[in-house]
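PROTEIN–LIGAND DATA SHEET

This sheet pairs a single protein chain with one bound small molecule, adenosine-5'-triphosphate, given as SMILES. Inputs appear in the order they were entered. The predicted three-dimensional arrangement of chain and ligand is reported afterwards as a token string under its own label.
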Amino acid sequence: MNMLNNLVGTSPALESVLRNARMAAATNVTVLILGETGTGKELLTESIQQNSQRSTQPFIKINCAALQESLAESELFGHIKGAFTGAHADSTGKLKAADGGTVFLDEIDSLDMSLQGKLLRFLESGECQAVGKTHPDMIDVRIIAATNCNLGERVSQGLFRKDLYYRLNVVPLELPPLRQRGSEITALVDYFIHNTATEHHLAEPMLTKAAYKSLKSYLWPGNVRELKNVCERLCILRQGQTIDSGNLPQEITSPSATANQGFSLPETGIDLEALEIDLIRQALSRTNGNRSKSARLLGISRDTMLYRMNKYQLA
Ligand SMILES: Nc1ncnc2c1ncn2[C@@H]1O[C@H](COP(=O)(O)OP(=O)(O)OP(=O)(O)O)[C@@H](O)[C@H]1O
Ligand SMILES: [Mg+2]
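PREDICTION REPORTED AS:
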């Protein structure tokens, strides 16, 4: 099976991504990973780090959507004592803490405009300017950034700096959605079932041809994350048994109109933001306010969910 560490990649679309990822891993070049939620951006980042010459050096993950706006600069670049109210002691930023190693900037699209400028300067010069310090430190950090947004579009909307986009986009690796990786579903199902069975000391269930077929024809809005969850559940609930399509979760065998055919856009258009707010509210009410479960229902990560709730002040 074609794999890069723990990442299964047997479809032609993914094989070419993995080929490029291996080449990028051998260098220090900045990598930008694109793909819908659950397509494996974080897993690919880890694989690249483990295959790089920096594998034994520090590896720090930063979720840009979770950075608190007022402290974000200090969190990335550090600060010196007295630089601002509450700065009681010097603080090493995360970039400097990763000197010699790798930093993963997840959800890079959420990075504040002013920080985008500072990150660009760092990428171009290697200079890390701690808040309140007069001279920058030179540091050597490899950046891997990821987003599930169309960054090019964010640039044209004026929400993301064009110069930073070009600087990050040296080696773009685009993980295709699972619905475009049909041939891979079988390999992933077998892999997840085998892993779950081994981990929990269970007898592996056997899937019928019809079950594989149903899994292949589903659109997987939550991508590999959703498939992995389904496999784990099946493996635990139907250990040692046969799994036919009738044993699969209902959303897979009789998907709702939204999941299967997609929304059909009315002639008069829609208010996407209002729809998003409404769906988030529905998810929260259905799960009694449980954010992780709501995020799963919406096929987004918990961090993205928190970011959106914050953005629309739904908290
Ligand atoms: N090709 C793959 N092979 C094996 N496991 C995979 C693969 N792709 C994803 N996974 C698994 O699926 C889950 C989701 O992957 P990951 O967290 O990397 O997605 P992501 O693209 O970062 O999602 P998000 O945008 O929501 O943060 C993880 O448990 C990961 O291990
Ligand atoms: Mg992720």
